[in-house]
């Protein structure tokens, strides 16, 4: 981000945060956002200086005394990214459009942190979108230079994101499903970034009209762990263009090129 940041890397107090009341979905804006996601191919070289890397920060709310359910937290994280990517402020002349264009033209990076109490409250003042699933909450922030990351987010811990629970393996009846790789061991923070990426790629499987309806419904989706048999079928579906796989660059936790999550649409 450029003009939306002050010299300290913070956004103007008059402009930060979500609107105080829900804003109606603009179908034309969703179509423009959807077009960006469909056209996204990823890649690109990293800049010379690490501070110039473009990344989307994510924050998971994990209260020490009452941590959320693992499935709900990952679902909230994925929905937060999808909601941000299809937000009217990310389209056309919106205040987030330039940052989203730059990020989608670079190598996609997401970094998940944890917050609780006053830290979580402060993070709500930074440009982004929060999603709630059950008792879990997660927020995705407008991407920008790592060196410009708002200090209210930068100071949050990247580690310590583990929560209890296991992902279900059964398929839902319909809708967007993000299947995680049963053969990879990833922290919740790492997996949150992966399902967030998968929720973006799922847009490639939607028509523009479907994307509008999905955004109006606040991007419902399911996060599941695939069985080994289903995973093999999903890899075949990805090769055939019927599903979309996330292939990790391998900067943390897992080997480069690992397929971490596969998005598919189950239609009635």
Word description of this protein:
It comes from Gordonia westfalica. It holds the Pfam family PTH2. Its EC number is 3.1.1.29. It catalyses: an N-acyl-L-alpha-aminoacyl-tRNA + H2O = an N-acyl-L-amino acid + a tRNA + H(+). The chain is α+β, with helices and mostly antiparallel strands and 268 residues long. The protein has a single domain, classed as Bit1. It contains eight helices and nine strands. The strands form two sheets. Strands 1, 2, 3, 4 and 5 form a five-stranded mixed sheet that branches. A four-stranded mixed sheet has the order 7-6-9-8, with helices on both faces. Helix 1 crosses helix 7 and helix 2 packs across helix 6. The protein is globular and about 45 Å long.
Helices and strands in order:
Layout: H1 27-39, E1 54-61, H2 70-85, H3 97-104, E2 110-115, H4 117-123, E3 128-133, E4 136-141, E5 144-145, H5 151-154, E6 175-180, H6 188-201, H7 208-216, E7 222-225, H8 228-239, E8 244-247, E9 259-266
Parallel strand pairs: 1-2, 6-7
Antiparallel strand pairs: 1-4, 1-5, 3-4, 6-9, 8-9
Helix pairs in contact: 1-7, 2-6
N-to-C CA distance: 41 Å
Shape: globular
What is the overall number of helices?
8
Query: Sheet with the most strands?
Result: 5 strands, mixed
Q: Residue ranges: pLDDT <50 for 5 or more in a row?
A: 1-20
Count the E strands.
9
Domain count? 1
At the fourth level of CATH, the homologous superfamily is: Bit1
Order of helices and strands: HEHHEHEEEHEHHEHEE
In the CATH scheme, the class would be Alpha Beta
Percentage of residues in strands:
15-25%
Question: Whole-number average pLDDT?
Answer: 89
Give the helix level as a range of percent. Answer: 25-40%
Would you identify the CATH architecture? Answer: 3-Layer(aba) Sandwich
EC number: 3.1.1.29
GO molecular function, one term: peptidyl-tRNA hydrolase activity
Keywords: Hydrolase
Protein name: peptidyl-tRNA hydrolase
